[in-house]
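Subject: sequence -> structure tokens, single chain

Hey, anyone have a minute? Need the predicted structure for the following. Not urgent.
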Amino acid sequence: MNKTIGILLIIIGAAMLIWTSFTYTKKEKIVDAGPVQISADRQKTVNWPPYLGGILLIGGIVIVATSKK
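Reply:
Had a minute. Here:
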């Protein structure tokens, strides 16, 4: 079980080092006046610091290295 968690942390940490953010599109209502509704697509970006990916990567390596067979 620990080895699986460690490998998962390694994969997530490496992905967070490669991609430091992602963008998604969300529909937002701009005007809502009775039967008239106007909405627009807005792009939102989620960022995280690259060192967080490094911490997860190192933690995963430590868990895999110290896990019992």
